[in-house]
Design brief:
Blueprint: E1 2-7, H1 14-22, E2 29-32, E3 38-44, E4 47-53, H2 61-69, E5 73-78, H3 89-98, E6 102-106, H4 116-124, E7 130-133, E8 135-140, E9 143-149, E10 154-159, E11 162-167, H5 171-189, H6 193-200, H7 207-219, E12 223-228, H8 237-247, H9 251-262, E13 271-279, E14 283-290, E15 300-301, E16 304-305, E17 309-310, E18 328-332, E19 341-343, E20 348-349, E21 362-368, H10 373-387, E22 392-395, E23 402-406, H11 409-421, E24 427-430, E25 437-440, E26 444-452, E27 459-469, E28 477-480, H12 492-502, E29 515-523, H13 531-547, E30 551-565, H14 572-578, E31 582-588, E32 595-603, H15 607-617, E33 623-634, H16 636-652
Parallel strand pairs: 1-4, 1-5, 5-6, 6-12, 7-12, 28-29
Antiparallel strand pairs: 2-3, 3-4, 8-9, 9-10, 10-11, 13-14, 13-19, 14-18, 15-16, 17-18, 19-20, 21-23, 21-24, 22-23, 25-30, 26-27, 27-29, 30-32, 30-33, 31-32
Helix pairs in contact: 2-3, 5-6, 12-13
Length: 653
């Protein structure tokens, strides 16, 4: 079986392309996963094929990456409008990183919204590989009625519902065809000395030789050939499928590519797991592509026994089935197989670095509908994060509630639907509160005496403490300068412990940071003093001093790396400034052509707005990662509102 992924932005007709390709010679067999990955098996030219129709939303890029991990080649579907080329940028970035041989298919050419050369030029801004036209359109007025193959120099006229008809190259297209063919041959000659010599000697190379060279350079991932058509009308589908059949590399090349990318012994690489999901009454289903021999139910894979092997088409298990290299199958009761991963018989190998998904930008607290579901929710989210690497599950610092980090609102909605339909857990979501802190603005001193008589031994401790603001980022510090044993040495650790306890909650209701405490005097009693008494005296004394130290609210500030196509860079300074952030600078992204990386400091309270604004300003393409940088003071009405809201929330709970 040969396997390819069809990927690209939403509304570019990917699913229609797969449907038409699968129906060229029979009836395809289709299955779908809850994550939007559709798997279509079909036969073409007496060969078994598997097409992975990757989900289109940018929030599902993790599943696109994983599909490429199991693919011999891919088809990138793009729009025929030059201004929409930027929407393909994330997919070209993934294709380049994965080194997957790619055919670019410009779909919906029956409704052209620009010149084909302008489309290719706009896409070339995001591709390191040369995008090389293999066909040109034949026009009649504003309509595209056929295409001309630049290698065979044969022209085809589209016919609705039928195979295209072979025609002579129209005079109106002859000059364009000659120019485009010369450009094609010049680029191909860069990878073939024989062709270069033929061109220098002004000899016309035969078509068979050119097809062989084209096949080799695609298998070697040297160029990205460009084909055109309209899947909804069936135009260009046969040519696209023939290009895949003759030019896409075999499964052995995929095995070699994966072994090289992950430094695993190619001879030991048996399979790759690339997708997983949960089904009611069945559990975890893992999609696997065989790369070696000997896989069957009960055989060792990934260090444990492989569970039931199921057909993707009908979901039926058959213990007699032995997948051969290239086959794609579903495995159940194989929970030991992580996704994605490279699999030997005895071990699980981490996938290549390029499969790392974008950092989730949307953080939400999930609240179960009933107390009964609280424990169940935690376990279920852990399961789902195993099958969806775009999802991160944490706990909110202040409440311990389930905090999910999703790629965006569509991703979050799909997660909630899965919880409801598969696991019967109803949840609502809310925005988590930023983690605020407080400190003091001025030093103070306090003398605190703790005395308590309870009958028998009493409690006595007397401390004199100096409280001062520390420089930002230094945290809590404790010193002592007592003399003459007025506070015995064995009680000083208790004084420090009490001071630390007082830092857990300051006068504004938040944890206190960047404060230094010094014990400089005190008294003790030979009978009634104890560690507990000095701890209590220190805690109460520090609390009193904090209330006199002009408490200041501190907000978290995050260092963000914002990744966007260069065409959107001009709007980013305004976006960050509007969120009270600070742009630190930007550079070209060396790992992705046509992309920039902006570095900025953004308040924690603005991260949700940054995600939303960035999504809107870049048509869902831009994304950012963040790391905590520091806390900074927050004053005025905004600070007062946060303190009041925090107090109200505390009272309600």
């Amino acid at each position: 079986m040969r396997c390819f992924t069809v990927l690209g932005p939403s509304q570019t007709g990917k699913s229609t392309v797969v449907e038409k390709l699968g129906s060229l010679e029979g009836t395809p067999r289709k299955s779908s996963s809850p994550y939007g990955l559709n798997v279509t098996e079909f036969t073409f030219a007496n060969e078994a094929w598997c097409a992975l129709d990757a989900p289109g939303p940018n929030e599902a890029l993790a599943h696109v990456q994983h599909a490429l991990l199991a693919s011999d080649a891919c088809i990138l579907c793009v729009s025929s409008a030059p201004e929409e080329a930027v929407l393909a940028a994330p997919y070209l970035r993934i294709i380049e990183a994965s080194q997957t041989p790619c055919i670019l298919f410009v779909n919906r050419m029956d409704e052209p919204r620009g010149r084909l050369r302008d489309v290719i030029a706009a896409l070339q801004d995001y591709a390191n590989h040369t995008l090389l036209l293999r066909q040109i359109p034949i026009r009649e007025g504003d309509r595209i009625v056929g295409s001309c193959d630049l290698i065979s120099e044969r022209a085809w006229r589209y016919r609705e519902g039928q195979t295209s008809a072979l025609i002579a190259i129209p005079e109106s297209a002859a000059e364009r065809e000659h120019e485009a063919r010369n450009e094609l041959l010049e680029h191909l000659s860069e990878f073939d000395d024989w062709l270069l010599e033929e061109l220098i000697e002004d000899r016309e190379p035969p078509s068979d030789a050119l097809y062989a060279i084209s096949s080799r350079v695609l298998r070697e991932n040297r160029i990205i050939p460009v084909l055109i058509g309209s899947a909804s009308h069936g135009n260009g589908m046969m040519r696209l499928m023939k290009a895949l059949r003759h030019e896409a590399p075999p499964v052995a090349a995929l095995r070699q590519r994966l072994a090289r990318a992950s430094t695993v012994d190619e001879g030991k690489l048996s399979a790759v797991s690339f997708h997983a999901y949960h089904r009611q009454n069945i559990g975890k289903t893992v999609l696997v592509r065989a790369l070696g021999e000997g896989l069957r139910q009960g055989a060792s894979l990934g260090g444990s026994s492989l569970g039931a092997v199921q057909s993707l088409a009908n979901g039926r298990s058959n213990s007699a089935v032995t997948p051969v290299p290239g086959d794609v199958f579903a495995a159940v009761k194989s929970d030991h197989l992580p996704v994605p991963s490279l699999l030997t018989l005895d071990a699980v190998v981490a996938p290549p670095q390029w499969t790392e998904p974008p950092t989730p930008m949307l953080e939400r607290i999930l609240v179960p509908g009933s107390e009964r579901d609280e424990n169940k929710l935690s376990e279920t989210l852990a399961k789902l994060s195993e099958t969806d690497r775009g999802l991160t599950v944490l706990q909110e610092e202040s409440t311990g509630a389930q905090l999910v980090c999703a790629q965006g609102p569509v991703h979050l909605r799909d997660l909630c639907r899965t919880l409801s339909e598969v696991f019967h857990i109803e949840v609502t979501d809310r925005t988590p509160s930023p983690i605020y802190r407080e400190t003091i603005a001025k030093p103070s001193e306090v003398h605190y005496r703790h005395r308590k008589q309870t009958g028998g031994a009493g409690q006595f401790a007397d401390v004199k403490l100096s409280i001062r603001p520390n420089e930002r980022g230094r945290g809590f510090t404790f010193n002592e300068t007592v003399k003459g044993g007025v506070v015995p040495r064995n009680y000083i650790p208790a004084v420090e412990a009490g001071a630390r306890e007082a830092m857990e909650k300051g006068p504004l209701g938040f944890q206190v940071i960047d404060v230094g405490v010094t014990l400089y005097d005190g008294q003790h009693h030979a009978v009634d003093s104890s560690e507990h008494a000095f701890r209590t005296a220190s805690k109460m004394g520090v609390r009193q001093a904090l209330s006199e130290g002009s408490a200041v609210l501190m907000q978290p500030v995050f260092r963000s790396e914002i990744h966007i196509p260069s065409v959107y860079s001009g709007s980013l300074v305004q976006i960050v400034s509007a969120l009270k952030g600070q742009v630190l600078g930007f550079d070209r992204d060396e790992s992705a052509k046509g992309w920039d990386i902006f570095r900025a400091l953004v308040p924690g309270s603005a991260l949700d707005d940054l995600a939303r604004t960035l999504r809107s300003a870049t048509q869902g393409i831009g994304y950012f990662s963040k790391t905590f940088d520091h806390f900074e003071e927050l004053y005025g009405k905004e600070a007062d509102a946060i303190v009041r809201a925090h107090e109200t929330q505390r009272v309600e709970h």
